Amino acid sequence: MTFTLNTANWDELQEQTSLSPINDLAWEGWIVEGVPEYLGRGYSRELELHPGIWLACSDRLFYQDFEQKVPVHPHLVQCSVMLTGQEHSDRYPTFDPERGYFSGSGIAPSFTEQVWRSQRQMELHIHLIPDIFAEFYAGLKNANTALLKLLLKQEGWKVSFFPPVTLAARQLAQQIWQAPFWGATQQLYLQDKVYELLTLQLQPLLADTNLIHSAPGRKAETITRIYHAQEILQSRLEQPPGFLELAKQVGVSDRTLRRGFQDLFGTTVVGYLTQQRMQQAEQRLRAGNCTVAEVANQVGYAHLGRFSAGFKRQFGITPSQCLAGKIQAQ
Fold first, then answer.
1. This prediction's pTM
2. By the 8 A CB rule, do 95 and 152 touch?
3. Per-residue pLDDT of the chain (330 residues; tens, 9 = 90+)
4. Which of 35, 58, 73, 212 has the fewest CB atoms within 10 Å, i.e. is most exposed?
5. Phi/psi zone of residue 146: left (φ > 0), alpha (ψ -120 to 50 degrees), beta?
6. Residues facing 207 on adjacent strands
7. 3-class secondary-structure state, position 236
């Protein structure tokens, strides 16, 4: 049975958690917290690499399913990579070893995270205050003020992106995790690797011309709201909000939402939703753990024929052929 924890519940359990002393020079200077024994085992550790930049690593395995409710809160710039496991929530797409997370500063909306038992989660997170990020960003090749304005906010809703995690990025994350030094040498090594990882994960965003060259008159705040709408759709593929409800949730008119999706993603809201549903369906079919009917239901299709027709339009093969391992038509 799944139960729910809020922030106060988690903090209370954390206070009751004991952690055996760690006699490892590589962990010197890190703040280490254990997983509450009631929930599982493992740890999380955090190190301030430089004033205004923190690195956090965690390796956890939980014994039972639960949900953790996170309230609205201030948010720093954040870059995250997961090495093993998955992280699910009701607001964001699934975070896993293939899909990273890059978020700007501002106000983070509330969300509920779903934690699954018997699934080892190894992940690392980089947090930066806006001034430090702006200084780092200025030295990047192809840096532009449009993306920087999107990423750095104080009172507005933060904007989040989910860049792919390349082999090079994954190797960097593993090098950070397994830093071979300790003390001041370790901090210098980690600073260097962290900046490399930030640079790699920013490349898809810097290459996205929609972020750099928005439509005439399109304000950075409006672009942020359109991307927020994109996040909501990605997190609710099975039961997405209606068009007017979505526009209201992100604070734009239905006309602005319609035009924004066309400008930024080259398709309509419904077209984008269909693309994302089909991509998720293809991944689940290739995993081979579900039938075609089960996958159709999981991505929000009640009519199997419509699902099959839409799938074939997008990939050139039927769902059954995909399940059997046939390669996508070229």
1. 0.72
2. no
3. 567 888 888 778 777 777 666 666 677 889 998 888 888 899 999 999 999 999 999 999 999 888 888 888 899 999 999 999 888 776 777 788 988 999 999 988 888 888 888 889 999 999 999 999 999 999 888 888 888 988 998 877 888 888 889 999 999 999 999 988 888 889 999 999 999 999 999 998 888 766 655 544 556 678 778 888 887 887 787 788 888 889 988 888 888 888 888 877 778 888 888 888 888 888 888 878 889 999 888 888 888 888 898 888 888 899 998 888 876 554
4. 73
5. alpha
6. none
7. coil
